[in-house]
Structure to design on (264 residues):
């Protein structure tokens, strides 16, 4: 039931994101400021407090074997890098510098439609942590030799269509086709969490988990913002990440006492 609610919410948000600029453009041309989507709020089945995975749960997820190696690699990469689901599925090998551990996010795919990133901040290069880099290395054994495809991509104006070459990184194990929808991954994810004996949370929590892990170990907020393509520190802290008490690497109280010169 929860998986269905998450999926329905994602569809609602995508519809609003697509229709809102259409009404804005209409209003600009007709000099009539009317955009009914501004008053529509997509349902949010997840609580405002992110329901993230702990380090122990992450270890259970990535240590549990699976015969679907592509999805298993995809899960570890997602947990270790935190992209949006649309960005993840649209990753192209042309945008990956595996030797130097750099990935560029340049587009996304939603319900089979490839689109340029939704804003300029979302188009970004990120540094890969070791788990994400290792997952990509394993995935290249699956997709590293695939020939480029030609796909249609809609530009940020939601009108201009371009032909682009695409070398998919992530493919479904059963069909060997590039991921363009998240339903297949979600079905595998649900079963995999059960096999790992980890309480179910939707795949979107992989992004929240990465952000939360980075906040917990004290990474600079500006670095986190650059990695995940978000613009607001407030939104990062309030809606996308939280401090995970059990995963803090050191006692920050002990560290503060030491830095301030307080000793027993």
């Amino acid at each position: 039931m929860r998986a269905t609610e998450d999926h329905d919410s994602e569809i609602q948000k995508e519809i609003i994101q697509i229709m809102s600029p259409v009404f804005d453009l209409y209003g600009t041309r007709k000099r009539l400021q009317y955009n009914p989507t501004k008053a529509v709020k997509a349902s949010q089945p997840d609580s405002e407090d992110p329901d993230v995975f702990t380090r122990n749960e992450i270890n259970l997820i990535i240590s549990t074997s699976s015969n679907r190696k592509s999805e298993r690699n995809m899960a570890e990469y997602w947990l270790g890098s935190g992209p949006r689901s649309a960005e993840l599925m649209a990753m192209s090998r042309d945008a990956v510098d595996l030797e130097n551990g750099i990935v560029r996010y340049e587009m996304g795919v939603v319900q089979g439609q490839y689109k340029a990133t939704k804003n300029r901040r979302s188009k970004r290069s990120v540094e890969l942590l070791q788990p994400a880099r290792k997952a990509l290395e394993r995935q290249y054994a699956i997709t590293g030799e695939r020939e480029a495809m030609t796909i249609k991509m809609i530009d940020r104006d939601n009108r201009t269509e371009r032909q682009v070459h695409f070398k998919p990184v992530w493919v479904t194990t059963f069909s060997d086709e590039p991921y363009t929808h998240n339903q297949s991954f979600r079905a595998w994810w649900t079963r995999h969490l059960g096999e790992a004996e980890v309480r179910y949370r939707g795949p979107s929590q992989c992004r929240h988990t990465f952000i939360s892990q980075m906040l917990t170990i004290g990474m600079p907020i500006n670095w986190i913002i650059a990695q995940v393509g978000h613009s607001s520190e407030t939104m990062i802290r309030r809606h996308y990440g939280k401090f995970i008490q059990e995963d803090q690497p050191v006692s920050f109280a002990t560290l503060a006492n030491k830095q301030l010169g307080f000793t027993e």
